[in-house]
Amino acid sequence: MNETGLVQTPDFEPLAVLFKKRLSQELLDAVRPIIRKAAHRKVAAGRRGVAAGTGMQRRRRKNGSISKITGVPSAEDLSDEDYKRIYPARDGTFGFLDRTIGGGQVYPCRLTMYDGALPEELALMSHLAEAVADVFKFSCVDERWEAQFKKACQTPLAFLVRTPKGHTPFTTITCNRSFRTAAHVDKNDLKEGFGVMCCLGDFEGCDLVFPRYRTAVRYREGDVILANVHQVHGNTPLLDPNGSEPKLGREPERLVGIFYYRENMDQCESTIKKEHAFVNNRERGGRMYRGKKK
User: Fold this and answer.
1) What is the tens place of the pLDDT at every residue in 119-133?
2) Which of 8, 81, 103, 159 has the largest CB neighbor count within 10 A?
3) What is the DSSP letter of 286?
4) Cα–Cα distance, 218 to 235 (Å, whole number)
5) In this structure, what is the dihedral angle of CA atoms 182, 184, 190, 191, given to the nearest 10 degrees?
6) What is the dihedral of CA 62, 63, 69, 71, to 10 degrees?
7) Which CATH architecture has domain 6-43+91-281?
8) Confidence grade of residue 282 (pLDDT, cut at 50, 70, 90)
9) Range 111-117 average pLDDT
């Protein structure tokens, strides 16, 4: 990393940019309980097999037989090493998702958030998105910003994270809690864009690592990091604030907000009502998006 906080590949492509203490303590304290509540799903038995490092494995039924449904193994089926890393991990999502297929059914572009989210909580998370977007906008990766913001401008406002001042370049915020991710590459993020992250909590370790380049970036509460999440990346072990290995079940809380633009969101219909109508009237086996191959 050079003195400007920019990490580059040997080909001088931006890998990560770190901005220290760019978020106010007041804003962080306001969103802390919201991110904590949003990251409510267990990663074990969830759907993030790549980030969990387990892959998507066939699920075991209660009677011991193996089903055709795949996912992250349940806690009882994890190896001892994976159990220590994954059992305490939680995740969740704010914002919007593109059209997806599950169980043979097409789901429309939609708002996705944890149960019980209040309007004021959504507003605070939008202000956090606005704050990190400002860091992104005035960074040294302006080409990435311009590509992502241009795509956001082509996207219906109904599917963008926005504030009364206007929209951000993000459709989605993934929230992680005490989740040390395995080496992976993010999927469904806009390839021309960049991942934008912030974290909260009192902990050590869990640095962002790019193993191909033997590079690690340490970021802490109040920092904002921009990263090329299409490069292989993961985290070092999560440690107690004194640097010691935590006891199982007493892991330090590390909250992370990951802000990004999901591909294909510009292909959603102009309103939620029209989006549902398009999906409901779509012929079985037809194209997922207008003008695109199925």
Assistant:
1) 899 999 999 999 999
2) 159
3) -
4) 10
5) 150
6) 50
7) 4-Layer Sandwich (3.60)
8) confident
9) 77
DSSP, residue by residue, 238-280: EE-TTSPPPPTT-PPP-EEEEEE-BTTGGGS-SSHHHHHHHHH
Nearest to 17 by CA among 144, 114, 155: 144
- CA dihedral over 216, 221, 223, 228, signed as positive or negative: positive
What distance in Å separates the CA atoms of residue 59 and residue 77, rounded to the nearest whole number?
9
Residue 94's DSSP bridge partners are 173
pLDDT at 119: 87
The answer to whether the CB of 233 falls within 8 A of the CB of 264 is no
Report the alpha-carbon distance of residue 223 to residue 82 in Å, rounded: 28
**pLDDT at residue 293, rounded to an integer:** 52
Looking at the predicted structure, is the pLDDT value of residue 46 above 70?
Answer: yes
Length reported for the chain: 294
Number of C-beta neighbours around residue 259 at 10 A: 27
Q: pLDDT for 167-218, tens place per residue?
A: 999 999 999 999 999 999 998 999 999 999 999 999 999 999 999 999 999 9
| Beta carbons within 10 angstroms of residue 7's beta carbon | 22
C-alpha closest to that of 172 among 188, 150, 153: 188
Asked whether the beta carbons of 209 and 221 are under 8 A apart, the reply is no
Per-residue pLDDT tens digits for 66-101 = 888 899 999 989 999 999 999 999 999 999 999 998
- For CATH 3.60.130.30, the residue range(s) in the chain are 6-43+91-281
Residues ≥6 apart with Cβ < 8 Å to 136? 144, 145, 148, 169, 194, 196, 224, 226
The span from the CA of 129 to the CA of 169, in Å, is 9
Q: Which two tokens stand for residue 11?
A: 């080909």
